[in-house]
Amino acid sequence: MSIQKQCCTSEQAFKLKSLGVNISLGNFYWEERPMENGLGYFFHFQKVLLSAEKQDQFAPAFTGIELGVMLNYDSEGDSYPFNADLIYYIESIGDKYQLEAHLRAQILIHGISIGWFKVADVNDRLSKF
């Protein structure tokens, strides 16, 4: 499986960025560029040095592993240490996402949006990874 398929989508990456997830913590990046027929998205396989004027064009393409760290996923116990509402949410969207990274990114986006996760905690877990 390609590394691109092991990362969140470009839409999810830009949403996580807008929610405050630290963009300097990623190893891969999505770039958004204006094209003739709208916006185009390009995947970068290396850390991108972001100048201040270009930061809006880039968002981290977090891998499934990085997203698991941000979610505090316990791989040995194969579980998320959360409440029943979160488990219900995961079960309700699980069939929509065929790739683990996409599912984890969506859980994180939803969790931050409604207050299950604090962005500071998410960034702290990833920075220690």
Describe this structure as you would to a colleague:
The protein has 129 residues and is an alpha+beta fold. The protein contains five helices and three strands. The protein has a three-stranded antiparallel beta sheet with strand order 2-1-3. Strand 1 and strand 2 (38-44) form a beta hairpin. It is globular, with a radius of gyration of 15 Å. The mean pLDDT is 82.
What would you say about this model in short?
This protein has 129 residues and is an alpha+beta fold.
On the 0 to 100 scale, the average pLDDT is 82
The biggest sheet, with number of strands, parallel, antiparallel or mixed sense and barrel status, is: 3 strands, antiparallel
pLDDT < 50 stretches = none
Overall 3D form = globular
Strand order of the main beta sheet, please? 2-1-3
Distance between the termini: 23 Å
The total strand number stands at 3
Strand portion, in percent? Answer: 5-15%
- The radius of gyration is 15 Å
Task: Give the topology string: H per helix, E per strand.
Answer: HEEEHHHH
Helix content: 25-40%
Number of helical runs?
A: 5
Structural class: alpha+beta
List the helices and strands and how they pair.
Blueprint: H1 10-18, E1 29-35, E2 38-44, E3 58-60, H2 64-71, H3 84-93, H4 100-114, H5 119-127
Antiparallel strand pairs: 1-2, 1-3
Helix pairs in contact: 1-4, 2-4, 2-5
